[in-house]
């Protein structure tokens, strides 16, 4: 007997159709059996930016332990969840996966501390946003192909990256710049596949930070179990496996929370889609609200998890120390290179222009945003310690 959840399924009418893709900015011939979105996924995986995610952190700096999540492991986990949800909703799994793998390419080193540092330094020049930077990475900064800058991804993948957090009513910075030459219909919602990738990001992020926080001893499993969503999973595991080792107790609890959230998204999305009765992917884009979302009770439970993590993990004194040191290192590197772009490597220096100029600021920002945690710390030492060769 075939398991219905794993059986091949025909795409729903509201799924994005690869054969109806709006194409690429630079037209390309076919040449193999892959769909446009499979080609996008493969190009993303082969980028230098994707490989560098291995040494960019979620919360902990890379040298704090090999076990904790990095941007790379997070992206892989998001992709797995996105494919699972997309399959259940009969969407294009390859597009959902490509978006999941690309969504963090623009993150700078040191997680949110690095983003805050760059945003503060770039405030006079339009600020810094990692979602816009992800779009810039795949459309400009990755220089791999002879005929174009970036990866020349399909319109649907670029749309999903630009609208990662929903419609962009007032585009600014690089998103506005790119949209001017390759319109992405920014005022509408993204495809259902892009919405799935965004929700998968939330599911993975919160649950894996719970896992890492417990293993880092920032809080206990029992303290997290005071949250209704986590508590229900914890009680189920404890009742079924009363003598299970603690490490397995943690894993079994977190995986049940993930499953509960995935099930909720599938049920709520199915309900909203049935109400909307879309005839195609453009009906999803034109809807008054997202079709892929948590139910109200799950959204409330998820907010409680976020609030718990904010106070018990992201504001823990150990994390605060690491974040402040990392933030300061990023700011110092930016200030030194912005004032002295002649210290940039050749390929960056040629683009930077005059010291202290807006052009130099943007080039230095792009340079730092592409660094790993380790490289950023080494660059800080090279620029500030006279005993270390440049």
UniProtKB/TrEMBL annotation:
<keyword id="KW-0378">Hydrolase</keyword>
<protein>
    <recommendedName>
        <fullName>Deoxyguanosinetriphosphate triphosphohydrolase-like protein</fullName>
    </recommendedName>
</protein>
<dbReference type="GO" id="GO:0008832">
    <property type="term" value="F:dGTPase activity"/>
</dbReference>
<feature type="compositionally biased region" description="Basic and acidic residues">
    <location>
        <begin position="1"/>
        <end position="12"/>
    </location>
</feature>
<dbReference type="InterPro" id="IPR026875">
    <property type="entry name" value="PHydrolase_assoc_dom"/>
</dbReference>
<feature type="compositionally biased region" description="Basic and acidic residues">
    <location>
        <begin position="19"/>
        <end position="40"/>
    </location>
</feature>
<dbReference type="Pfam" id="PF13286">
    <property type="entry name" value="HD_assoc"/>
</dbReference>
<dbReference type="InterPro" id="IPR006674">
    <property type="entry name" value="HD_domain"/>
</dbReference>
<comment type="similarity">
    <text>Belongs to the dGTPase family. Type 2 subfamily.</text>
</comment>
<dbReference type="InterPro" id="IPR023023">
    <property type="entry name" value="dNTPase_2"/>
</dbReference>
<feature type="region of interest" description="Disordered">
    <location>
        <begin position="1"/>
        <end position="40"/>
    </location>
</feature>
<dbReference type="InterPro" id="IPR050135">
    <property type="entry name" value="dGTPase-like"/>
</dbReference>
<dbReference type="InterPro" id="IPR003607">
    <property type="entry name" value="HD/PDEase_dom"/>
</dbReference>
<dbReference type="InterPro" id="IPR006261">
    <property type="entry name" value="dGTPase"/>
</dbReference>
<feature type="domain" description="HD">
    <location>
        <begin position="71"/>
        <end position="206"/>
    </location>
</feature>
<dbReference type="GO" id="GO:0006203">
    <property type="term" value="P:dGTP catabolic process"/>
</dbReference>
<dbReference type="Pfam" id="PF01966">
    <property type="entry name" value="HD"/>
</dbReference>
């Amino acid at each position: 007997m075939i398991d219905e959840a794993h059986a091949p399924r025909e795409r729903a009418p509201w799924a994005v159709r690869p054969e109806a893709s709006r194409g690429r900015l630079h037209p390309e011939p076919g040449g193999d059996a892959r769909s446009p979105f499979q080609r996008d996924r493969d190009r993303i995986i082969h980028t230098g930016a994707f490989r560098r995610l291995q040494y960019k952190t979620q919360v902990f700096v890379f040298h704090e332990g090999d076990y904790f999540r990095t941007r790379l492991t997070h992206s892989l986990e998001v992709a797995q969840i996105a494919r699972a949800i997309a399959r259940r909703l009969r969407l294009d799994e390859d597009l959902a996966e490509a978006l999941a793998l690309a969504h963090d390419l623009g993150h700078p080193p040191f997680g949110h501390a690095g983003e805050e540092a760059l945003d503060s330094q770039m405030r006079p020049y339009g600020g810094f946003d990692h979602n816009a930077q992800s779009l810039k990475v795949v459309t400009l900064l990755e220089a791999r192909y002879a005929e174009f800058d970036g990866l020349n991804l399909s319109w649907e993948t670029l749309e999903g990256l630009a609208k990662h957090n929903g419609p962009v009513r007032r585009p600014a910075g690089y998103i506005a710049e790119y949209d001017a030459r390759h319109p992405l219909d920014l005022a509408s919602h993204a495809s259902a596949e892009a919405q799935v990738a965004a929700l998968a990001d939330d599911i993975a992020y919160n649950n894996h930070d719970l896992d890492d926080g417990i293993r880092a001893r920032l809080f206990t499993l029992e303290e997290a179990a005071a949250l209704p969503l986590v508590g229900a999973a914890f009680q189920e595991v404890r009742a079924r496996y009363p003598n299970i080792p603690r490490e397995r107790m943690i894993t079994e609890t977190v995986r049940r929370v993930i499953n509960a959230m995935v099930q909720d998204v599938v049920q709520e999305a199915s309900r909203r889609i049935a109400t909307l009765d879309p005839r195609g992917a453009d009906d999803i884009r034109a809807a008054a609200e997202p079709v892929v979302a948590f139910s109200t009770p799950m959204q409330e439970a998820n907010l409680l998890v976020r609030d718990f993590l904010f106070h018990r993990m992201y504001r823990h004194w150990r994390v605060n120390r690491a974040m402040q040191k990392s933030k300061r290192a990023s700011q110092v590197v930016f200030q030194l290179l912005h004032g002295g772009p002649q210290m940039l490597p050749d390929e960056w220096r040629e683009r930077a222009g005059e010291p202290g100029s807006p052009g130099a600021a943007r080039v230095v920002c792009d340079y730092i945003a592409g660094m790993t945690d380790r490289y950023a710390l080494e660059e800080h030492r090279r620029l500030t310690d006279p005993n270390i060769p440049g």
